[in-house]
Structures are given as structure tokens and as C-alpha cells.
Amino acid sequence: DAGVTQSPTHLIKTRGQQVTLRCSPKSGHDTVSWYQQALGQGPQFIFQYYEEEERQRGNFPDRFSGHQFPNYSSELNVNALLLGDSALYLCASSLRTGGHEKLFFGSGTQLSVL
Amino acid sequence: AQTVTQSQPEMSVQEAETVTLSCTYDTSESDYYLFWYKQPPSRQMILVIRQEAYKQQNATENRFSVNFQKAAKSFSLKISDSQLGDAAMYFCGIGSQGNLIFGKGTKLSVKP
What we know:
Number of strands of chain B: 12
Number of helices of chain B: 0
Number of helices of chain A: 0
Mean pLDDT of chain A: 94
Largest interface: A-B, 26 and 25 residues
Oligomer: heterodimer
Number of strands of chain A: 11
Distance between the termini of chain A: 37 Å
Helix content of chain A: under 10%
Radius of gyration of chain B: 13 Å
Low-confidence stretches of chain A: none
Structural class of chain A: mainly beta
């Protein structure tokens, strides 16, 4: 049973560019959440997708957008990259039950903005 | 707003000994849960233990147990019989509806 998979593993971009990160949820899961983890910090919630719609959003600018596909996989897009966007981006999946679902995380995409 | 504070940036424990990691939080939510995640060098966040806030009994998972003091808003993690594989970053946090708030983490080293 494959867990949460993310691609690519590492990515290098320059300021002003756009980037797309991908996530495939754990088998049987229908909800995907994205987190940003800056160096030396805990992960910060970006947004959550369920039924192909953004359901919750953290305190991130509109440059951060996402998408969820019918097969529950998800993409995170970041436009007009800033140096401060350099971080580990983590995807987490869960099965929506109406209660406090258990989240399973992938190993992340390390984004470096030069 | 919800906040989580881990006051111990680094901790060290001897193999087979017991160590306790501290965590305090603040929230205005009435329905939430608390958790500890472990992040080894592989970067994957691994759930160690979780506790529903409405439950009074402290959660345990094998060698891992928590001391949940709701009135004090404290949620510490005790690791018994520490093993070399326990070495990692440990993040405490609070969650509701898939939105998790993490602390800054405690780096745990295990000495052989």
C-alpha cells in the first residue's frame, strides 16, 4: 500500500518564476492538505482540498494556489517566487470522516529559490 | 488564534533511559486534539501519538505516553526505554478539521 508520494524531491527556481508541486494521497484517502516548513520551524498550514475544492486556507498570499483532481491527487502552485518561499513543502492526506482525521505525510519537496 | 510552544530546542537522553519533552498550547477552540509528530532526517512526518482534548485518560502507544493537563494547557511526551531510532525532531501541535498548528520542535539526541 503506497503512502503519500510527492514529486519532485528537490527543485531549484529563481525569483519571479512559477513552480508546481505534486502529491498523490495514500490509497483510500480523499483529502489533501499542504504545509510549508521553513528551516528550523514547524510546518505551517497552507490549504486543504476536498472534493476538488479548497476547504480551508491558512495565512498565505494568493500567489499560493492549488488544485485537486478527480483521482484525489493534488498540485500546489506558487507564482512570482520570492526568496522567502524557499522551504520544504509537505503534503498530507486523510480520509474525511467528520471527526478529527489522522493525517499521513509525504517526505516533501525541497524548494530552493535563488 | 492557536499557538503551540516547545520550550526545549534540544534534548539528549541515554539509550534505555526515559526522557520527557514539554509542550504548552493556547486555543479558543472547544473541539480539538493534540499530537506529537516525529521527523527523522528522511523529512517525513510520522505520527507518534494523539489525544482527543475531551478525553481525560492520557494516551499511550507502546513506549510513548503523554501527560495531558487541560487546565494548564500542557501536553508533554514521555519516551521510555529510549532507542537509537528515536533520535529525530519532535513536533507538538494542536489540530482541528485537518488544520494542524505545530510548535518549533525539539531535537532529540540518543546517546549509545
